TrEMBL record:
Keywords: DNA-binding, Repressor, Transcription, Transcription regulation. This is Multidrug transporter AcrB. It comes from Idiomarina ramblicola. Residues 10-70 form the HTH tetR-type domain. One of its GO terms (molecular function) is transcription cis-regulatory region binding. Gene3D superfamilies: Tetracycline Repressor, domain 2 (1.10.357.10). PANTHER family: HTH-TYPE TRANSCRIPTIONAL REGULATOR ACRR, HTH-TYPE TRANSCRIPTIONAL REGULATOR RUTR. Residues 33-52 bind DNA.
Length: 204
């Protein structure tokens, strides 16, 4: 009985996250209420507040159920794993845009954060969470660029900070514009070529 109750609770939580993902993608975060999410999931008001404190909690849970290539790379860095920094940077960047194109949950989350989330008032904490995560990623990848410079894979004239900001701007820009009109250009095909051009330019 206890096991069944736990399974029911997990199923309810998953339904709520699916409903939130769909409504946030369609209507935006600001214009979606907790009650609307509960109704779409077919549960009561009490049920949604049992699982999630507020919309910030919902967004964080949506982010938590998607493991991105950048997260996997950061785990490798934390573990001190040995790998070629430039190969890793290029590979993870390409894998990220591939996941956005091919994985519905990753694509929905990217769309919500980039296009459906007004960073004002009640959802401002989401902006702070997003910016904090981005800054942590930038610092980690900056260390990889610094490592590549130390190994001689990049010239000492390369500024690691500028290099990582440029890469983030490139990848984010590709994803942002592709999500506006997915039929306008093939994300993976164009994205891979753009990433190659950028990284190869740094190496030369």
């Amino acid at each position: 009985m206890v096991r069944r109750t736990k399974e029911d609770a997990m199923e309810t939580r998953a339904k709520l996250l699916d409903a939130a993902e769909a409504l946030f993608s369609e209507n935006g975060v600001t214009h979606t209420s907790m009650m609307q999410v509960a109704e779409k999931a077919g549960v009561t008001r009490g049920a949604i507040y049992h699982h999630f404190e507020n919309k910030m909690d919902l967004i964080e849970s949506l982010m938590g159920r998607v493991k991105l290539p950048i997260d996997e790379m950061r785990e490798q860095i934390a573990e001190g794993s040995e790998f070629d920094p430039m190969v890793e940077i290029k590979g993870r960047s390409k894998e990220f845009i591939s996941r956005v194109q091919d994985d519905p949950q990753v694509r929905s989350l990217a769309s919500i954060l980039l296009h459906k989330c007004e960073y004002i008032d009640e959802v401002n904490p989401i902006k702070l969470r997003h910016v904090s995560g981005r800054n942590e990623c930038i610092c980690d990848i900056e260390k990889l660029f610094e490592s590549a410079i130390e190994k001689g894979d990049l010239a000492t004239t390369v500024d690691a900070r500028i290099a990582v900001i440029g890469l983030f701007s490139l990848v984010d820009g590709l994803i942002y514009n592709w999500l506006l009109a997915p039929d306008y250009f093939p994300l993976v095909e164009y994205g891979n070529k753009a990433i190659d051009s950028y990284i190869n330019g740094l190496i030369r």
